[in-house]
Specification:
- Helix content is 0%, strand content 65%.
- The chain has no helices and 6 strands.
- It is elongated, with a radius of gyration of 13 Å.
Length: 71
């Protein structure tokens, strides 16, 4: 994830840099039910290609991940 003005602006998916067209939703998760707390900032984003993706930053480590939703 490439940050511009404190917001995600680009992501690298499948080894390709893709521009974030719009951030459609932002939410924060804090959960301490495990031995190690979970603190994350989630972003629902629309890419330049039109694909919808959810990414999150682990606020404890600073690392970024793509959320894979399964049903």
């Amino acid at each position: 994830v490439i940050i511009v003005k404190n917001r995600p602006a680009w992501v690298i998916l499948k080894k390709k840099r893709q521009k974030i067209q719009e951030i459609t939703n932002i939410w924060r998760v804090y959960d301490a039910w495990l031995q190690k707390p979970v603190v994350r900032m989630y972003y629902s984003i629309e890419l330049e290609s039109g694909n919808l993706v959810t990414i999150f930053q682990d606020l404890l480590s600073g690392d970024w991940y793509r959320q894979n939703w399964s049903v």
